[in-house]
Design goal:
The protein has 7 helices and 7 strands; from the N terminus they run ββββαβββαααααα. The protein is of the alpha/beta class.
Length: 212
């Protein structure tokens, strides 16, 4: 249960989730912001993601809730989540999302929250294709179909050892889009052959991709 940050707080329940209303912001257990539905969606995504990778929820709440800011527009949904790794800990969560509201709720929030969940489980940066490919698993079937179709139209020669080991985004926008599609396709390929738990164990290893 989140502790109040000042006196005179108001506790309310929306959809079974306890929220704290304070200074025009809504606080869930692990997320905060001015939009209750976004916070609730993120809270559910946090549990869904943890159950997918480990079979059970994360053990306890984060030390501080993650603030979520949303910018409405008619463009494609997108998001950015920032956090820090230090001494085996993960902290300093912030999330910014934009786009059409249904798209943000259905695809962007689950994708961004999955980054956070796996960071909490792995506790170090991982390869970009692996991180984005795993997070894309949490998006809608329509979104996943789009990534599959895109990957089928890309030559497999794009997947090199340098590409596989890269932990930073490509510099060109077209290459970023390709990385998402190929990363998702490769993650699905690996999951066809073993469990999410084994792929999580693969992510926890810090040696090169070829050695792993």
């Amino acid at each position: 249960m989140l502790k109040s940050r000042s006196s005179g707080r108001k506790i309310t329940t929306i959809g079974g989730a306890y929220l704290v209303l304070l200074s025009n912001s809504l606080f869930a257990q692990n997320f905060m912001g001015s939009d209750a539905e976004l916070a609730q969606t993120a809270e559910r995504a946090r549990e869904d993601s943890a159950r997918f990778w480990t079979g059970h929820p994360l053990p306890g709440n984060w030390s501080a809730p993650c603030p979520i800011t949303w910018r409405a527009n008619t463009g494609p949904g997108c998001g950015s989540t920032r956090f820090q790794f230090a001494n085996g800990e993960v902290f300093g969560w912030t999330m910014a999302v934009s786009g059409d509201r249904p798209e943000v709720l259905k695809n962007v929030i689950p994708h961004e929250v999955d980054h956070m969940v796996r960071a909490s489980l792995v506790r170090h940066p991982i390869e970009r294709w692996l991180d984005e490919g795993c997070a894309s698993l949490m998006e809608s079937e329509t979104s996943r179909d789009r990534l599959r179709s895109q990957a089928l139209n890309l030559p497999c020669e794009r997947i090199t050892l340098k590409w596989l080991n890269a932990k930073h985004y490509p510099q060109q926008c077209s290459q970023v889009s390709e990385m998402y599609a190929l990363g998702f396709s490769l993650v699905e390929f690996l999951l066809d052959r073993d469990s999410p738990q084994q792929l999580l164990a693969f992510s926890r290893q810090t040696s090169s991709i070829e050695r792993r």
